[in-house]
Amino acid sequence: MSEGDSIGESVHGKPSVVYRFFSRLGQIYQSWLDKSTPYTAVRWIVTLGLSFIYMIRVYLLQGWYIVTYALGIYHLNLFIAFLSPKVDPSLMEDSDDGPSLPTRQNEEFRPFIRRLPEFKFWHSATKGILVAMACTFFEAFNIPVFWPILVMYFIMLFCITMKRQIKHMIKYRYIPFTHGKRKYKGKEDVGKTFAS
């Protein structure tokens, strides 16, 4: 390799201005993401606000229904991944190689681990809304279509997908929403105290 052949380096071996700019931009973006991590409710409110702005924009422009349909399907896929366990119990049923969800009352409690964590779900959903919003600025993405058909098809797809997911949850007995650690009641102290 000759001098300057590696990615992001200029002829003199130093990082190029463009590489440094995008590297710094990525660091700032990651810093803001890291700072937003503990504020779950605020993050989701901002995302819902962006979604509302997007819907108003599509309604006022009376177009970009294909983009909206694609965004809906993308969000549905993210939601299904959010509801699914990281290790699918149907695949673990045949082999005893790894951990599985408890199926009986006397088995050990294992917390539900999602295939798609909440933060990544939020991040991907927000990026999807921003990409869809950007697409509404280009007429090439405004493909004429009879939108009620897309709405009906999306509702059918949502119902079928959620029915399958709920059946999966019932069959393998897992609930994707847990709130904190389980609390067990101990035996009541009915004995006498011993005085020394």
TrEMBL record:
Quick check: keyword Cytoplasm in the entry? Answer: no
Q: Name one GO cellular component term.
A: endoplasmic reticulum
Describe its membrane topology.
Answer: Multi-pass membrane protein
Keywords assigned by UniProt, alphabetized: Membrane, Transmembrane, Transmembrane helix
- Database matches in InterPro entries: Rer1
What GO biological process terms are annotated to this protein in UniProt? protein retention in ER lumen; retrograde vesicle-mediated transport, Golgi to endoplasmic reticulum
Q: Where's it mainly located?
A: membrane
**Membrane among the record's keywords?**
yes
Q: Where are the transmembrane segments?
A: 41-60, 66-83, 145-162
The compartments listed are:
Membrane
Q: What Pfam families does this protein map onto?
A: Rer1
Family assignment from sequence similarity: Belongs to the RER1 family.
Q: What does this protein do?
A: Involved in the retrieval of endoplasmic reticulum membrane proteins from the early Golgi compartment.
Q: What is the protein's name according to its record?
A: Protein RER1
The gene is Rer1
